[in-house]
Specification:
about 160 residues, alpha+beta, SH3 type barrels, 2 domains, four-stranded mixed beta sheet, four-stranded antiparallel beta sheet
Length: about 160
């Protein structure tokens, strides 16, 4: 929907820029029309409700309210037993994302068959990676790649939707 609105606005702006100074009345009308379209689009977006359907037998856990996740403590200790830090990143499945109060939230299905809600900044994976970006089709996690006998190297791991 946003891409559609942006495309319309770019087309209108293109036509506005090609107008001569004698067309100021038409230009003002077009500006009002753009403002009206944008206002209506914003109202419609606010009314949009997002619902997620989880497969039967899948439990939902809100990681934003769980202990030891997402910056509730400055650092999570390796001994943490929270499910989001128990398993390797490649065992989580990205289900989708939504934006709530200007905050990107992602939904992951864990290997324990529980769906978790996470946000940017949350800790994820057995190597204590930090969620750095939530996109429409994947999340990005910054983690230290630990290779025995070498210095840990930081890397970005992408968790994509499986289809």
């Amino acid at each position: 929907m946003n891409k559609y609105i942006t495309s319309i606005l770019l087309i209108i702006i293109f036509f506005l820029s090609s107008c001569s100074k004698t067309d100021t009345k038409e230009m003002e009308q077009l500006k009002q029309k753009i403002k009206s379209i944008r206002t209506n689009a914003e109202k419609n977006l606010k009314k949009t409700k997002i619902s997620l359907e989880f497969p039967a037998g899948v439990k939902f856990v809100n990681a934003l309210e769980s202990n030891n996740v997402g910056g509730s403590t400055p650092e999570i200790k390796k001994s943490s037993t929270h499910p989001l830090t128990e398993y390797p990143l490649n065992t989580y499945q990205f289900l989708g994302m939504m934006i709530e109060n200007n905050q990107h939230l992602a939904y992951l299905l864990g290997p324990d068959n529980i769906t978790y809600q996470i946000k940017e900044g949350d800790v994820l994976g057995n190597l204590q990676g930090r969620v750095v970006k939530i996109n429409d089709d994947h999340i990005e996690v910054l983690e230290s790649n630990i290779i025995p006998g070498q210095r840990p190297k930081k890397r970005i791991v992408s968790i994509k939707a499986r289809g």
